[in-house]
Design brief:
6 strands, two-stranded antiparallel sheet
């Protein structure tokens, strides 16, 4: 998936409180970032960004370019952006109005320089060889601008399972995605439906 000007992978492995490991495709880099702790709903992994090093590790794992070391101020700014994204995502999934102050945070960060594109095959280094944490945050914020745009807002949904609250962007062509993951809640729903049919036949 292309985010801003850089190709960044979307989706992540999640280990739920019961120890189950499953793949969650949120559909958005911004939502993936939200799941570092801001989207604290059932099934999420909880706070991951305890220190600047945690933030740096998450960014280096995601971005295909070198990211410099994170500082305490970077962690503060990153969690502010993350929590704004998370609140907007939860509100959108519930059909609620988006808070203007959270929109302001995203717009502010998105207005700063992001990670520039590069074309492989050249013989000279153009620009920085190591990108800053601020540039990575701007790239995430620009993805959030796209995520919360009017044409995509209705596709931000919560998993249909009663015991789950994972929020995702439905990127399916027909906009028919119902579950956070077919491996997890989709499979559980199939099992429950199968049991219900068997009980109905036996009755």
């Amino acid at each position: 998936m292309t985010v801003s000007t850089v190709s960044v992978p979307v989706g992540q492995w999640i280990v739920s409180p019961d120890g189950q490991r499953w793949w969650f495709d949120s559909g958005s880099l911004a939502l993936d970032f939200g799941y570092t702790g801001g989207l604290a709903v059932e099934g999420s992994v909880g706070e991951q960004l305890h220190t600047p090093d945690d933030l740096g590790a998450w960014l280096r794992d995601r971005f295909p370019v070198a990211i410099g070391a994170a500082r305490t101020r970077d962690l503060f700014d990153a969690t502010m952006l993350r929590d704004a994204i998370s609140r907007l995502a939860l509100a959108a999934s519930r059909g609620q109005e988006l808070r203007g102050d959270d929109i302001d945070v995203i717009n502010l960060v998105a207005a700063t320089p992001d990670i520039p594109p590069t074309l492989a095959g050249g013989s000279r280094q153009a620009g920085r060889s190591v990108q800053t944490v601020g540039q990575a945050m701007s790239t995430i914020a620009r993805d959030a601008v796209d995520l919360f745009s009017p044409d995509r807002l209705g596709r931000i949904r919560a998993c249909s399972a009663d015991d789950c609250g994972m929020v995702y962007l439905d990127t399916s062509r027909a906009a028919t995605r119902r579950w956070c993951s077919m491996q997890r809640c989709g499979n559980r729903a199939k099992v429950r439906a199968h049991r219900a049919r068997k009980l109905a036949k036996a009755a």
